[in-house]
């Protein structure tokens, strides 16, 4: 197809993703070094001869990483082969001291999966071509000379005076998930990534709060819109012919949508002017919101893939059957509606993360599902959100929270006090609900004692009652005094006054 022809035709966006996901394991994929990065750790402290790529050091495969990959495969409804194996992908870069990355090539751990997700209320489904295991390289910092902190001197490569390498990340297990070119709009990419992260977090194999835990390479091309078949698919030859670019190292959902929208319009402008799109790798500059050319796209043959002889092929036949995965979000949301009679919105909110869903379910089982829904979905999540906290932060206090709901359920305190005083102090002061109630005198039992004292004061002092009805101002103060005496001074004089008037004016 010539560019000439493209100028006059309507063009449609085609996108395919390669998503790199850091799997949560205790140790690295081929050695015993920890994957747990302390916030202020020194560079090159979590390393050993294997992840430093020293000559003669041998890799030992981490079973936990394979298990995590099988879980992902099951969640994506993918095929897991009888046998999987590893290859060397050869290239030189300072973050990869062995000069090759151990990855998978012709027998990846997962093939032919799918992921369903929603975009603006519409159900979409994207095919996952393959998902394979590999090791993360180290990380690189380009730095300018100076005396200020290192972070403030970290710059782009073109402005740098020198470069630092940190191998702490080297050997972190990655799963690379490669989709078919099934996306037709950048907004779909965002929906897909959100859903993928949610699935991975439900599986307990991923931590989205970790820096760099999700890194996306996105391929984008434009094809003539009239080539798209009615079922939305595009003929192979059209896809192969289309010149595409790969936008590298996008790290957020929003960034992906922005980078791809920008790249789509850049390509459209070129084609509409009769120019061609160069096949190349482009880098997304998140702060400027534009993509810039990095290099011509490398091809498979550039990497001289060959079998990793230091790792024998791994028999994984049967792993899919023996490794279990938890109930995932969609299924859980449907079950919550059915089992606890929740409306769509609450069920959605209460399954937003596995932690929230677990928390809700434990409270619901202890008491009333409706009350638990209100308390977790509205009150607790609202107050946590206000404090920039999550359910994770109160995970160890489930019993205390359940106790608060119990106190409300059993009518021991008013809902208003529970919401506005007890819950807030639980979060702000870390106190247990019963202690807060004691300290603040919020128990309804206390209220009941005041009500009884009011009744007694009225019955025992008919003269004062008569004086009150005849408009004598001092009578009410006398009665308040009586009630205060009976309650040992614990009641609030203002509210006693109100309660007395209410009763006397009946
Ligand atoms: P390569 O051999 O260059 O790595 P692949 O066919 O293996 O290319 O696909 C790599 C990625 O590019 C996949 O995510 C795939 O969905 C995507 N892709 C393939 N063809 C297109 C296209 N025409 N437009 C956009 N993305 C595409
Ligand atoms: Mg790759
Ligand atoms: Zn190591």
* Number of distinct helices: 18
- The shape, in one word, is elongated
Helix content: 40-55%
- Kindly name the structural category: alpha+beta
The pLDDT mean sits at 91
Low-confidence blocks of residues: none
Adjacency order of strands in the biggest sheet = 5-6-9-1-10-11-12-13
Number of strands: 15
Proportion of β residues? 15-25%
Bound molecules: adenosine-5'-diphosphate, magnesium ion, zinc ion
Question: Overview of this structure, please?
Answer:
α11 crosses α13, α15 (444-460) packs across α18 (493-504) and α17 (473-486) crosses α18. The chain is of the alpha+beta class and 506 residues long. The chain has an eight-stranded mixed sheet. Strands 4-3-14 form a three-stranded antiparallel sheet, with no helix packed on it. β12 and β13 form a beta hairpin. It folds into three domains: 3-322, no CATH class; 329-425, no CATH class; 447-504, Arc Repressor Mutant, subunit A (Orthogonal Bundle). The chain contains 18 helices and 15 strands. It is elongated and about 105 Å long. It has helices at residues 3-7, 63-75, 150-153, 186-203, 236-241, 253-272, 319-322, 329-340, 344-349, 354-366, 369-386, 398-409, 415-429, 433-440, 444-460, 462-469, 473-486, 493-504; strands spanning 11-22, 83-84, 87-90, 100-103, 110-119, 122-135, 139-143, 162-166, 173-179, 214-224, 245-250, 280-285, 290-296, 306-307, 314-315. The structure holds adenosine-5'-diphosphate, magnesium ion and zinc ion (ZN). Residues 28, 31, 33, 47-48, 50-51, 171 line the site of zinc ion.
